[in-house]
Give the backbone structure.
Amino acid sequence: MRLIERFFSVIGANTIDRVWRLGFAARFFLAMLSHSGETFRRPRLLLRELYASGVLSLIIILVSGLFVGLVLGLQGYDTLQRYGSSEALGILVALSLVRELGPVVAALLFASRAGSSMTAEVGLMKATEQLTAMDMMAVNPLARIMAPRFWGGVLSMPLLAALFTAAGIFGGWLIGVIFIGVDEGAFWAQMQANVSFRDDVFNGIIKSAVFGVAVSLIAVFEGFDAVPTAEGVSRAITRTVVTSALAILALDFVLTSFMFRGL
Amino acid sequence: MNRRVMDLWVGVFVVIGFAAVLFLALKVSNFSASSFATTYEITAKFDNIGGLKARGPVKSAGVVVGRVAEIRFDPQTYEANVVLKIDSQYQFPNDTFASILTSGLLGEQYIGLDAGGDERMIPAGGTIAKTQSAIVLEKLISQFLFNKASEGKKDAGAQ
């Protein structure tokens, strides 16, 4: 009897804790937005974060995009040539990258590359009481530390997703046209005829922007909320990657069901 | 890190990021071709549209001249009303013939427009009167089998 009681009380406590954290995150988000003015008045702050989350993620994004495109080209060709429609390879590669793989995989990579380092940075600042020190010097850490990191992530995410997609399409072209020998004209013409800017490319960019907001918010919040010990920071980093991945995939499903209904 | 070097790298990042967006807009999708061109709408009624989809191409002499904007079912006549968005630089005579064709054996379906000889052109919002439905493979096969069967009967009757 005791055991059952204890079981339910643990579940209840966990649930209440989650809801509490969600509310705290929402409050944190609003506070950070209201302190974002300084980020844009002092572009130096933002530039540093664009470098940290954008430029430093470039290599992994471009290389992964290229390999995803190469694999899509090989697998797509293998399937399509069974139905005698290997010219449709361009559509397959472009649509799957523009609509889904580009934004989602780029966001997953971004979460593990840039999100984790954001959490580690903020978490360590908290653990070494730099945030408290700043507060004492009347420098608001939300405006000076959190908001620039958040906006750096939000701004670089759509660009990284576009680069991932472009690299992937280049990879598909490399395999399809150069190595296998699909007709180059058909590859690009079919792609252009069937990929719409408004419905496919623009929706992909919206998706990546939403993922950018989600991942950056989770990363900064987990760092801010970390238990200020070595173990706490490492746990916060793990939570950033796990929560971001789940948030990206769940948001992707929701956005896709709104965007591509009946197409 | 040196400030100037960092600025340079951020600049490079933003430039190639926008270059990628531009590549997606111009080379991968049809942004330049159809998003800005002015179009007018005409309606065509079909008994059966087969597998025609919204956004499918409208071709005349094999050249894409427009897109299928909307497909509706008319509950009064039990026909399909297909709204076509035609590029304004192309005009078609009143007796233009619209048919639903298939590109390749299993390819996508599109609307083919065969221009007639009428002097007057179809106005914006006008209707194409003469249409031919999509060929449904099952109907074609059953027709073929039916003909074969009746041929066989005729042969049997002659003997």
Chain A has a mean pLDDT of 90. Chain A touches chain B through 35 residues (CB under 8 Å).
